[in-house]
């Protein structure tokens, strides 16, 4: 299958080149600016808005109009169109794992997600949130993605890739809009976008509400099924549906005047079902919640003094992981003798960890353009991240009042603020400074060099450089040579976990490190036809893994892993005529772990294809189709399960906008062919808890309406 898929991709490439030859000949004499245009702009490559073709990074940008055309309702659907990026799933809540170039881990701290350039990482796992619940798209102006390291600008966790979500400003909302949507799985949505200007004040507001029961695909067998077989119990809820109920409220607020801008946001998650379970044991009653608040105040002045562009920013981010009921790690009636818990738990094994964090940031940047061929960017900043409250209720472990182990069937007790809580509270302070120089030493060559120094209160300092040489080889071809280093800071779950019955933290951990080399080509025959080819190699060291402790049934976090990777990414954009556009990309990667010799990286696709067509069928009527092939995912060397099946998903969106543009409607059919697509679940010796992996949604339908006024 691998060879057939590769041949198919190369055949498509050859056909596209052949069909575009006439277009190429007709456009050779076009002006340089006409070739490159001025619409594909990105800011996260250097911190300044610039043409993506000239940016010193392998980057992609997806605008609101592109998101609307594909009918996407969630950020994950948007990101699946990026070459070299695959959205995997974690059993807990089906949380998204953004896999860049074969770099994958359970909680995905190796990817930095920004909202308007500000990180939303949590201390607990280093991810976006354990209670993520997705991100809607109605407030998004554009999504910028860098594939590869970005620590020289953004510091920790800008490791495998960086995703910057730029929200709508008040000026971006040209017309007020109200909308509603309904779909499969009892999905109900409503949203509104509003803007108002008064004198020199500009106000923007976006409100989005989402309520769903979530997909109902079935988990045939879970970890409790194995325990039932060994213990003679019948506690498992499998076969049973994954638990993916959601009740989300997202609000974005923007207020600006002159050089000042204030933004605030709320991501509230309620009734959050935990997917395949906390310990890969189904429990349909478990419900979590999370409140995530953010606000930032920015002062930006490009004319305060000659040659200086100055920006100062203060920001605040508050996030929580909370429970709406006691969380059953294992269901009622579980006999957990075989895994060291000493008997039958009539009410189930209950463990309810909760955490609350605050993040304060201050940053100042200055761009100096007074040199003829240099553009200097300087930045300093300070971050205080505080895991200020940890709570836990459970019916196992040690009773703080007696110092004795709780027997099976004991009442739930509160171990918060005792030595027996699952994780200690604490904070992390980070101060940093960086410098970047963009040196245009000839008309055709531009060298971007940068370095960032970070100091952390809990593990010391780290230095991360970058170099990018961008060569305008011809009027149509840009060649990029890229080098960079990155680091990933240990999470508190890896350093501060003290009473997890299986996994223990290690305060002596070092950050993970990555060194990357890339060669990229951007060839634009015309505004209608373009190609990109990227070649990369990376070296990932000091990977943090939980490894078995001597003379104990626990595992502790240690810097023990290493992985090398190489690959390529190809993409093509072709505007055949005013009514039809094709997009195609292909990604291949070969990543391998080097712990004990060479072992191919598991769980990640070695090949991906993506093909999208946008067709203006009639005035006001647009048809969008997307085909996504995910291929060649390997099991871990010790995993005895059958190979992971490849899958192909077909999505179809039909959109209509009235002649005067004041109302519209969309019909989206996802997984048109009702393909049985699955993402791999983790292996645990001697058997996988979820032997049949994690089923993705089958065919589902969504209809939305909107009106502008």
From TrEMBL:
Residues 253-669 form the TonB-dependent receptor-like beta-barrel domain. Residues 53-162 form the TonB-dependent receptor plug domain. Residues 1-21 form the signal peptide. InterPro entries: Beta-barrel_TonB, Beta-barrel_TonB_sf, Plug_dom, Plug_dom_sf, TonB-dep_rcpt-like. Belongs to the TonB-dependent receptor family. Hemoglobin/haptoglobin binding protein subfamily. Its main location: membrane. This is TonB-dependent receptor. It is a multi-pass membrane protein. Keywords: Cell outer membrane, Membrane, Receptor, Signal, TonB box, Transmembrane, Transmembrane beta strand, Transport. It is found in: Cell outer membrane.
